[in-house]
Write a structure and sequence with these properties.
Layout: H1 17-31, E1 39-41, H2 43-53, E2 56-62, H3 69-74, H4 76-100, E3 104-108, H5 114-126, E4 129-134, E5 148-151, H6 160-165, E6 169-173, H7 177-188, E7 192-197, H8 202-205, E8 215-218
Parallel strand pairs: 1-5, 2-3, 2-6, 3-4, 4-5, 6-7, 7-8
Helix pairs in contact: 4-5
Amino acid sequence: MADMATPRPNQPRGPTSEQVGSDARRALTVKYASKTNATILSGEEFDEIRNRDGLHVVGVTGFSGQWGKSKIDSDPAVRANVDAAIVALERHLVALKNAHGGKLILSSGATMEGVPKIIYDLCEKHGIAAMGVTCEKALNYQLGTMKYLIIEGQEWGSESATFLRTSDEIVVLGGGGQAKREAIAAGQAGKKISLFRGYGGSADEISPSEVPGATFILR
């Protein structure tokens, strides 16, 4: 009797995992077509590009909705914090561009909210390539101008492991629980970490003992 687990010569085979993954990314590309011109990749596909081209990826995390437009417009203290953060992050990004040139990629949460918005605006201003690592919920928001976009999962936070893995170093300004977890995980992975102090949130709360070797940049 033939082994039932062995397909007969003319028996059709199911799709490979690569084909399933490719089909899923094509579906996401169609779904996001009205939102972004970015190339949508899996984390593994981006890893290949990064290694091939010798890219240096700086992941930036921090406040998002807490620094949304309505809060900036209605709260002078939030506006002052955002204005100061723009100056500080611009100075840092220019230094990174001087150090890494065209190999530099800035990675953040894809949406035009809070710290990610600051990053995408500054990348456009200074001609720095940008990418986003996010979940499918970002589809409900305006997206920044990006070269690459990685979408992981359907819930906020499901993209966190990919964001960390695809970043060579991490920058934190403000942020909540997820930003804190990412900073600590980055430290445990031996990545370079820069924390901007004086803007509130997790970056002000994280102790040096939680992120040994991190650089603290005071306001």
